[in-house]
Write a structure and sequence with these properties.
Blueprint (H helix, E strand, L loop, with lengths): L7 E6 L5 H6 L7 H8 L1 E5 L7 H14 L4 E6 L2 E2 L8 E2 L2 E2 H10 L1 E7 H6 L12 E2 L10 E4 L6 H14 L12 H4 L10 H5 L10 H4 L18 H4 L33
Parallel strand pairs: 1-2, 1-3, 3-7, 7-9
Antiparallel strand pairs: 4-8, 5-6
The structure holds iron/sulfur cluster (2 copies) and FE3-S4 cluster.
One iron/sulfur cluster (SF4) binds next to α1 and α5.
């Protein structure tokens, strides 16, 4: 495709840890480098761009104007609203201001990660910075939530590739997540499920059941109520995911998962 016909993407970073970027760049299929260099025109990203500083902020302004109504806005991170938004400053301004500006000219918005989709860990009680999800701050645009802390790499690239190929967001479920990646519970695809069904549970992390790979439900696994693709896609090119490394799912793609304590009990 001609570079000019590629979808223009502006990718903002707010209140976050950048773990979502770390996940994205490890996508194997498609390779993140293919997505960024060949499938989209990534005009702005604070973390992936070589440029920085005032000229880069000026470039963002130019992109917003030149492609008004046409660009895809990807957002990583929550939006802290307390005290005028000073808890996350970008280019010398509150992130909330930059976000609202960028959202105005966006054709559609991707909320990458549980920070953007739900407010994130920093929204844990008592949420001192009043961190909100992106869709609590902007409105009037098609929005897709791609939760996970972080989301699975191929889920991240899959959503943006859907937009690049079809020019629209993928079909969404009732919570605004793409059905193709959030249609199953972790429990539905779990390879430990036969142990659950047989009533064979690890009772502690170091007991014989844990060593034998039995179900982690009783040590807090939230797989039965968590919707995500970890069990079928797995991480790092299908290598593993939390349950496979011996830890229950903490529901990192679920709204409010940070306040669902205690983590290690049911
Ligand atoms: Fe980091 Fe998790 Fe927020 Fe992604 S969703 S930026 S991994 S805290
Ligand atoms: Fe379900 Fe978790 Fe047990 Fe897997 S480990 S079967 S997801 S409860
Ligand atoms: Fe998160 Fe659970 Fe997957 S903790 S990474 S949704 S297995």
């Amino acid at each position: 495709a001609e570079k000019a016909s590629l979808p223009v993407v502006v990718w903002l970073h707010g209140h976050e840890c950048t773990g979502c970027d770390e996940s994205f760049i490890r996508s194997q299929s498609p390779l993140a480098s293919d997505v960024v260099l060949n499938m989209i025109a990534l005009e702005y990203s604070d973390t992936l761009a070589a440029a920085a500083g005032a000229p880069f902020e000026h470039h963002l302004k130019e992109v917003r104007e030149k492609y008004a109504g046409k660009y895809l806005l990807a957002v990583e991170g929550g939006v802290p609203m307390a005290e005028g938004g000073i808890y996350c400053m970008v280019g010398g301004r509150p992130f909330a201001t930059a976000l609202k500006e960028a959202a105005q000219g966006a054709a559609a918005v991707i909320e990458y990660g549980s920070c953007a989709a739900w407010g994130g860990i920093q929204a844990a009680k008592p949420n001192p910075t009043q961190s909100l999800s992106v869709s609590e701050v902007i409105s009037g645009k098609p929005i897709v939530k791609v939760p996970g802390c972080p989301p699975v790499p191929e889920v991240m690239t899959g959503v943006i590739m859907h937009y690049a190929l079809f020019g629209a967001l993928p079909p969404l479920d009732s919570q605004g997540r793409p059905k193709q990646f959030f249609g199953n519970r972790i429990h539905d695809t779990c390879y430990r499920r036969p142990f659950f069904d047989s009533g064979m549970f690890a009772e502690k992390f170091d007991d014989a059941g844990a060593k034998a790979g039995w179900c982690l439900y009783k040590v807090g696994c939230r797989g039965p109520e968590t919707y995500n693709s970890c069990g079928n896609l797995r991480w790092w090119n299908g290598l593993s995911y939390p349950i496979q490394s011996g830890h229950g799912c903490i529901g990192c793609s679920s709204n409010n998962f940070w306040d669902m304590d205690p983590f290690y009990e049911r």
